[in-house]
Each structure stands twice: as C-alpha cells, then as structure tokens.
Amino acid sequence: MGIPSEDVVLIQLPKDPSEPTVVTVNCPDKPGLGCDLCRTLLEFGLSITRADFSTDGRWCYVVFWLVPNVSNSFKIDWESLKNRLFSMCPSCLVPFFYLNNQQGGDGNGSSTHSSVYLLKLCCLDRKGLLHDVTRILSDLEFSIQRVKVMTTPDGRVMDLFFITDGMELLHTKKRRDDTKEHLIAVLGNYCISCELQLAGPEYDSLKALPSLPPAVSEELFTCELASKEASSRELKSDLVTLKKATITVDNLLSPAHTLLQIHCADQKGLFYDILRTSKDFDFQIAHGRFSSSVKGYRNLDLFIRQANGNKIVDPKHQNALCSRLKEEMLHPFRVIIVNRGPDTELLVANPVESSGKGRPRVFYDVTLALKMLGICIFSAEIGRHSSSDRQWEVYRFLLDESHEFPLASDRARNQLVDKRSKDSKTYASKSGFEFVKA
C-alpha cells in the first residue's frame, strides 16, 4: 500500500509574504533521509524556522517551516523544490523489506550519481564577477563540486567550474545550450567565451589540494573544541555569550529512547549540521522538534536510539556524541586568514558527509561576503583534505590587495570581523573569522 505521489511532498505557500512556507514530507523512511532533505533546502537558499518530524523506522512524517535566506537574490522555484524533495523519498509503492535490502552505499537506494560537467568561462575581470557566476549557477540548480579560478596579467579571468545538475538534465543538448545562453546574456560584454562539456580526467586531478603548511593544517583541522573556545576570549563579550551550547542527556523520560535537549545559538544550516552528525554517528531520531529562534537561540528536543535499537547509556558514547554535536554547532566552518608570501589567503574548511557530499552553498556565501566587502579574488580553488578521522572540503581564495582595503593591516582584518549583513554576522580572532547567523 502507499499514498498518492502528489501527497508525498506538499508545499503550502503563505497568504502573507511575511509568514513561512510550510513543506510536509510523508513517505517511507531510509537512513539519512532527514539530512538529505535539509541539504536540499539549503541548496535552494531556504532557512528552517521550525521543524517537527517523527518516524517508526519504516515511515516518516516531516514538517518544515521555511523562509528564504536574506542573501538569496533569486526567486524560489517551489515546483522544482517539490520535485527534488520527491526524488529523495523512497517509493511509497515498494515493499519495505525490498527497500531495506536494496539500499546500499549512503542509503539513498541508488548506485548512480550525477555526472560531473566542466564549465569553462573566459571573462574580462571585474569586482564581484566570481560571485555573480556562482549566483547564476545556483539559480539554475547546479551544484559546484570543484573550482579553479585564475586571473591573467592582461585583466582576464579563466574560470573552471566542475558542476552537477540538480535537475539531472545536462546530458541533453537543450539544457547545455540554455545554460550557456543564460550565462552569456547575464554577463554581457564581460563574457569572452563559454564552453560546457562532460568532465574528463582533469576533474580527478583537482580533487586533492596542494599540501598546506603544517601550521595552517594544524589550525584548520586538528584544533580541539576546547582550544577554539579558549581563543574566543579575544572576541567581544556579546559574541562570546552567543558561542555557547548546552546538551542534556535524559534516559529516564522515555523507556525506548534517549532524549537529547539542545540549547544553542542560532546559525545558518543548524538543523542540517545536527542531522548530518546523526547520519555520520549512525543514530536514529524517532521524534524531534526544532523550535523557533528566540533572541538568537534555538531549543531542540531529539528522541534518539542507536542503530541496533538500544538507548545510548554508555557514558563514553554519550560524551563522544555530545562533543561532536557541540563542535558541529559551534564551529561548522573552520576559517582563517594567512599570509602567503606578499599575498593574503583566505581558507575555509568544512567537514564532508560520510556519503562524500560537501556542505551546500559555502562557495556562494563566501564569494558574496567578499563581494559585499569590495574585495577582489585573484584566484580560487576547491579541493579535499583528509585528516586522521575525517575528510574536509577546503576553499582557498587568494585575495587581491587594494588601497581601500589593505588586508595586511589589523584594521582591515577587524573590518572583516565586524562586517555584518542581513543574513550573517562575522566573528574572528586576529587569525581568522567565522560566519554565524545573527
């Protein structure tokens, strides 16, 4: 038995634009489904204001209250979002035992992956160009997997974008031609040439980044949460207050589940970070409530259990889980500014999901922040770095020095710290900064 396909994903648009859109997902459950749904909402530039979800391990029911991120400059295509969310849901007409036996890999029920395509753009350079191209690709529902950006001495930029298509239509000539025409039309006279083709061996060669200096690797990948919290003493007092999180573990309230009560500062992608951690730690959330933000804070109640169906009673397991959750809630990004010879380099790192997927829209958000600050990007690249216990996606930006914004000065770096947009607030010590939603 099943439910009509049109009822699997329901989207209720608000009558008042100031109210959230309500999205309901009602389908068979699968490992990591909640994380995958939240990831897609992030890709579409949406923020979760509230959420309720429940599952018995076979069937799940999820309700999201959504608003567009303020940084979004494009209209949400709700019909396309509905199709994307529906494509992630296991078929309602397939028997559960068949579903459980056929799901492999990351549990998505499919062994196929979207093909990677190479977009080659040659343009005349100008401020904000890289973000403008990134915004167009996001608007067209492309995900950026790798990037190589180079500026030539004659004022031209060669951009190599390795992309996948959320609509999975790039194999058609029409989708490729429409994409190129749209880019050329928006970029206008700045666009010199535009090519789009299936990626070749060059994609694999760009997966690994050139080795980072040991000191940089130490700060990006091996700093413990305690040391990062200690460094926050250099921050302003109101920011220190925000960067706190408490997690209470209760095994008495429910006979079958462990209750996690979480209180933490709100930030972009918070619900995704928590569900990503649950997916990586392989614990199941039977019921959860993600409350609205109150004075910049969120409260979450999660009834969880281990994959074997048992409660989490081992203190060591509890401590490991709580430590990882705090780390992901307080530090979803690792961001530092370093000197690279006479130049200034911005490095952003975030953990990769166990399925191999990186965090959505990081490149979009960072290039937007730099554009708003009027900082030009001389070169940029995305790659992967493996540490002792996890894999990271690393974004490297070589920034162009200017008289208006001399990056070598403490004053300019403090401006990076204090820069605030409607969507995010920026915190930093002398060595770096992090983006956290205000």
Whole-Å distance between the termini?
Answer: 46 Å
The profile of the biggest β sheet is: 8 strands, antiparallel
Strand content: 25-35%
Strand order of the largest sheet: 1-2-4-3-11-12-10-9
Separate helix tally: 13
- Strand segment count: 18
Helix % is: 25-40%
What structural class do the secondary elements suggest?
alpha+beta
- Approximate shape: globular
Low-confidence stretches: 93-113, 225-242, 417-438
- What's the rounded overall pLDDT mean? 82
Radius of gyration, CA atoms, in whole angstroms:
22 Å
InterPro entries: ACR1-12 (IPR040217), ACR2/9/10_N (IPR056816), ACT-like_dom_sf (IPR045865), ACT_ACR9/10_C (IPR056805), ACT_dom (IPR002912)
Organism: Hibiscus sabdariffa (roselle)
Keywords: Repeat
Function: Binds amino acids.
